[in-house]
Amino acid sequence: MKEERINPSLWTTTAHGRRFPVLPGDVTVDVVVIGGGIAGLTTAWLLKKAGKKVAVLEMNRILTGQTGQTTAHLTELLDTPYDTLRSDFGERGARMAAASSRASIEQIASIVKELNIDCGFQRLPLYRYAETDAQLRELEKEITAAQEAGLMVRFTRDTPLPLPVKGALRLEDQAQFHPRQYLLALAERIEGDGCYIFEDTRVVDVQDGTPCRAVTDRGTVTAGDVVEATHSPLNRVFMQTKVYPYRSYAVAGPLEGPLEQCLYYDSQDPYHYIRTQRVDGVNYVIVGGEDHKVGTEEDTEQHFAALEAYTLRCLPVSKLTHRWSGQVIEPADGLAYIGRNSASHHTWVATGFSGTGMTWGTLAGMIISDLILGRQNPYAALYDATRVKVRAGAKDFIQENAEVAFRFVADRLSRPDGHALSEVAPGEGKILEVSGQKVAVYREEGGACHAVSPVCTHLGCHVHWNNAERSWDCPCHGARFSPTGKVLNGPAVKDLASKKLPPEASTSSDGETP
Hints:
The protein is of the alpha+beta class and 514 residues long. The protein is built from 9 helices and 26 strands. It has 3 domains: 10-70 and 181-241 and 334-390, FAD/NAD(P)-binding domain; 121-176 and 243-329, D-Amino Acid Oxidase, Chain A, domain 2; 413-505, Rieske [2Fe-2S] iron-sulphur domain (Rieske Iron-sulfur Protein), CATH 2.102.10.
């Protein structure tokens, strides 16, 4: 059975790169980077420029993970309000968060200019708007805090959107681009001169030491340093207590009326985000939102339906041509975790990018490359991956980890979705109880069934079916698996175990009907 993403993004359908080879066996380099998204490729490029020999390892194809599922806003306005950052990290911390986000945008602009990359990079203003009096009061607080953090922000009564608003925050000099066009061009410059990109190469173990080793299903890469730029670090148990996985949805369609090119955010919970992008001669409007915790929704398809209805109702578009979803990793205290991993000497991590993955992913490359090269980085201390902020995010930390503990027990005791294969419709997945054991069963459109263990290979929670993406999703730490149990998202590194179905299903030893 061929595994394919059923909801490809606008970026993956409008920018196609060449294939890179698989790891041919054991390789030795200066630095091995795990993950072929924006954080991994930016890190690799900056290290190569500094003279390091680098190998990038990607378990699928580069840019098909979360970087390929972004909406690609480049902004200093973070998901965590500056008022909250000022309270938790102090006035200097809030100013440094703003300055680091500006530095990452300028880093992207510099690379675009240096390499002459045609990716639609464009500077433009951002609006965050309020539609109720309560939202307006919160917005006014954020404007004051953002101004004190050094952002070029002001209050306005109007926005270019065809929507009535109570008021809006306007932030100057933000940006947008086509992320795959940008990063495919960067990947071409990384390979060569003793540097490599290897696709379809899954890392199964990371061994910190002198030297370090990244053990894969195709060989071992030995290096002085290892960078885990995998969105969710591989089997880092302590780190998993500080980051929380969410799904976010997006739709896009040809723009059919006037809409000024800006970045737009409403103040709802969860919020919507809107922008435009010209791709292949077509002006698209892109709308995202409907965020929820991974693996906790019984009907994920409803989120696409709600987002599509919102877009068609509020914006000058009558047809939506693309829809996709992506994984968002929320940090416990509101800032990404970037730097040396706990209890490690030469292993570096980058995670918790929240909804600003393009900005913080670039920042991760800047910070980690500097640290590996022995350079001072002004933002490294703020984003230190080993930090534990007892006060900041304490409520979320307790609630999120209590939910993990609850899920670990409750899913084992919960009633199955059914007991017979006949209860699983084509294109559907269900947890069945067969001969006293729970089995995750998926039926192809053609009728063939696949059975795997529902036990996530990360830390043992039970997976849930995601009907919008046709995947098995773990609600504890966000690991996701294909209908046949192949790893789609970390922190898991092992596939779900195959299970045999009852004899009447005529299954082969790998759980797949012949």
